[in-house]
Amino acid sequence: MSTKDICKEIKKRKNWQLSTIKTLLLRLENKTLIVKNTYYHQAHYYAQYSESIVVSAFIKRLLSRRETLSQEEFLELVENNLQNNSSDIGGLKINEKT
Q: What dihedral do alpha carbons 13, 17, 23, 27 form, nearest 10°?
């Protein structure tokens, strides 16, 4: 997708500024989740992994933290992610404990 298309899609869902979206893209690129190619001065981004691989990695990460969370915290984390993001894989997240 082009940067323009990505911005358009994100703005439909979130009230983010262009700089926030560019920061997100840069972080995803640094984590090698997306690849950036430039054509005629326009950036295009491509997913590096399929949705199933990302979901699998999320589940493995969640389960690896199981020992550090109480049963209630673990279930609440899973339930919140499923309720809030059932149709949006990009919203899945684990809040890191410090």
A: -10
**The whole model's pTM is what?**
0.56
- Rounded Cα distance between 7 and 5, Å, is 5
Contact 97, 64 (CB under 8 A): no
Report the range of poorest mean pLDDT among 6-20, 38-52, 65-79.
Answer: 65-79
- Classify residue 2 by its DSSP letter: B
Cα distances from 80 to residues 20, 92, 98, in angstroms, run 24, 9, 20
| Backbone phi, psi, residue 93, to 5° | -155, 155
Distances (CA, A) of 53 to 8, 57, 58, 66: 26, 6, 9, 20
Q: What is the pLDDT of residue 60?
A: 80
Q: Report the alpha-carbon distance of residue 14 to residue 12 in Å, rounded.
A: 6
Return the ∠ at Cα 93 (arms to 23 and 73), rounded to 5°. Answer: 145
